[in-house]
User: Fold this.
Amino acid sequence: MSVLLAATAAALFGIGTYLVLQRKLSRVIVGVGLMGHGANVLLITAGRRGRSPIIGSSDPSGFADPVPQALALTAIVISFGVTALLLALAYRSWLLTHDDEIADDAEDREVARHGHRDAELVDAAAVEPVDPEGDPTPGEGTP
Amino acid sequence: MIALLALHGVVGVVLVALGGRLGRRGAWLAALVPAATVAWLAGQLGPVLDGRAVTSHVRWLPGLGVDLDLRLDGLAALLLVLVSGIGVAVFAYAARYLPAEGPGVGRLVGLLLLFSGAMVGLVLADDLLVLYGFWELTSVTSFLLIGNDHRKAEARAAALHALLVTGAGALAMLGGFLLLGHEAGTYRISAIVASPPTGPVVGVALALILLGAFTKSAQYPFHSWLPGAMVAPTPVSAYLHSATMVKAGVYLIARLSPAFAADVSWWRPVVVSVGLVTMLGGGLRALRQHDLKVLLAHSTVSQLGFLVAVFGIGTPAAVAAGSTLLLAHGAFKATGFLVVGIVDHQTGTRDLRCIPRLDRTWAPTLVAGTVAAASMAGIPLTLGFVAKESVLEAFLHAGPGPWALAVGGVVAGSALTAAYSARFAWGLSGRGATAPFDVVPAAVRPAPGFVAPAAVLAAATVLLGVVPGVADRLVGAHLAVWHGANAALGLSAVAIASGAALFVLRRRVGRALATGRNLPDGGRAYVGALRGLNVLADRVTAIAQPGSLPIYAGVILLTAAVLPLWALTTGASWPGLPRWVETPAHVPVAIVLVGAALAASVVRRRFSAALFLGVAGYAMAALFVVQGAPDLALTQVAIETLSTVLFVLVLRRLPDRFGWAGGAAAGSGDPADGTTPHDSRMTGRQRALRVGVAVAVAGSVFVLALVMAAPEHPTPTTEQVVARAEPDGHGRNVVNVILVDFRGFDTLGEIFVLASAAIGTVALARAGRRPGTASSPSAASTAAATGPPGRGGDGEPGDRTAPAIRLGRLVTLDVSVRVVFAAVMVGSVYLLFAGHNQPGGGFVGGILAGAAVALRYVAGGIGDVRRLSRARPWTVLGAGLVTSVGTAVAPLLLGDPVLSSAYRKVDLPVLGSVSLSSAAIFDIGVYLVVLGLALMVFESFGDDPVDEAFEPPVSPTGEVPVGADPIDVVGATALGQQAPS
Assistant:
């Protein structure tokens, strides 16, 4: 690890964060991709730099650390799967709205503004008054 | 005992399952189960009543110290007589009462039996936690029984009310049980009662337990759920809400009271006053009722209060008196409910103002009802009288001073009881009708079998009232009709006389009571609490779930950035700055990476952003080379190629520029806005916030990276991994050995993630598409015929015209692509097999194969890709998963752990000596999954727009006319731009 690469990873994360906070899904995807690169920079520099860790090709004492490499390899492939899924979301969004804007959830906004009457409350209110004898005249007929 | 419980459970579940077919006939079958319980109990009764409890011990959760301890002693036997004896009567009654067929009838019977089993378990349980389990089971079955007719809002509300109140109480009780068990050092009830623990914690525990008992037994102020529960059918009300479930709380108090009443100073005052207040309140409310069933419900509340008060005293005499009252109440209250049910069933009403005069043929029903009322009122020659006498005795002997007040409360409550009992008998006889009704025709007279259960219970009430000595041993005291002219008898007479006076003056009493109806009560508090919770939930939702992705992402990222920093500042020491630059090769890589990232964030066109992301990817590949990671570099290059194609496939649908939305022309951005190529709706404050979060994340990452600076020497893990790669993993490429062998389980999880992503991608992209468009040839050709000219028919092998046209257009490209494709595929297979010893492996190979497929796609469209193989993309994906999982679990068959690797050297004719390792087969699965993912991506997004059901009338970019072949133009451009980097 050097200051240069630490700064590079930080820049990738910062720019990625900025893009992830946007409302256009394609920007979010690019942001996620950049953050993935940043994470891989961190991973790969967490291990020692050196020669390819292939036994027999050189002296093992000069090998690059293979453990972070394996982690980074996994990360690369997974982020491809994530990208594919996010792009499918963008595609779906385009099919439905002809755009990839992530709008606020209308129902959530509605709950925040006006509240939401739950079914059990509706039931309870329908049964009110709890007092079961509704008749205001308590007198009865003659025995 | 375990067998009895199992019998309840099994028959109950069978009845619930087959309920639809059996209807109410199931009740006869169900009646056999409590009958068997009674028979079993009769066999045990002798020794049990002599003080030799029957116990059963089954190890259940040894790790938690919870065992299924059951114990049948005198009190449990008494409760069991009630639960199962009345159970038989109620099931026999239900077989006549319930509609013959109909939704929910069979389920009701089955649930009732399950409830009965839970109740049997509750009284037999000798472990606090086992008791708690059965306690909750009664709550849940009660919820289902009350809400059985879920179409009625009333039933749903009442069921929820009962569940929430008793459930909340039960939670408090569980806390109390845990504290008590902890203090006592055992959860065995018999052991705790034998040597009760003391101390302040025990006091808290008992208070919590009482809370549970009070809610279950409908004590003030938690009583309001019980009258509401009367919406359930009469057998349910008679059984649960009079004779058994509500007695659970009383039972618990009866269990604990003898042990704690004397030592815990507040026990007697609190329990007795809560009981008496409940008794008086319930009695007053019962006096106001017109609906006889609701009258009985309030009278149940009142009687439960009475029982709690008696058991609260805790002396042996009081426990015996309470036991007698428990028995008497079970019998007369069940009779009362059954009789009201008969009248309601036959005449259609249970409102005392509408019940008609019933003629002599109704005599058995009316007599049973009157006996029940008499027993409730405490008239001599009924069991109720005997019980009340002994209770008064117990109170009179409880002590001096404040106990006189308690005696006064009991007498007042008994007077109210006598008054509402009279009201009940009077209303039942039809004398309360406000309008004259005809005598009910004979046709609606209840059948003898329908009345029989109530008549039997009434007969028992009278029998025990006349010769109470029969029950002596069951309640543990000598019972007699005549104790001589003592104080208790006098108080009884006062109570009955006052009750009669209250009944005679009912008009005036009614008017006086009417003024009290607006007093606060538990029911309103419950609805208020429900409403308050709802408002609170809305407020919390408004804050915690604002529905905005940027807010969610911002909060998550900020948390992820700040928390580790906080941990670092408190826990780690600053190691000092590492070198500024490790090797000169890093400088250009960093410049390209950051430059591409910045460019990707400021460009205004979607394609440009995607391409700059690709540039960053290639820079990453360069970094991997510098670091000495050829596998990573290979993978990154292949992935970058593939994902650029993927971006192109999706982005060709989307507007060219970010600013475009909902019909605005492309590139409509104001030129003056050129320096801020972001969403024009974003305000300065919003942007500042975003930049702030981004800076915070970047700063956090920077500090973290410096603190975790890499060690200059290999770690022990690394040394081990390198040293063991060849002897243990039989591979020389250490990274690959780690992936497919040392950390194979992670890789297995990873390919499942990939498969999920692939399935999700296809599902998202193809949802809502016309059925069969992609897979059925006929549908495809229909699309081709109806749509504009294009590649719609490519999927059909027989249709050669469309490809012919295409081949005519780009023969050179097509041929060269096929040659390159074959070469790349061979290369990918080589990487797959060489990967164990050379750079490569399943991931790289699969992605390279995917890139080869991309090449074919660019040249020939989705049709060419589909013609590559008969196997569908999901088949490839599935085959890969099966291969990997199979390799992983196969060692299990040989008795080895999952993912153990086998190894063998094989001599092959051409390739020579080849080392075959099971890890290589595992890697083939990985290869297939990755290739399947790539294929599925093309299947998802590769269709031509003309195949789409959702094709917009005008292409939003305005660049590519509908029906043309945008992929060749755009895709080739995209690939061309990448090539130099």
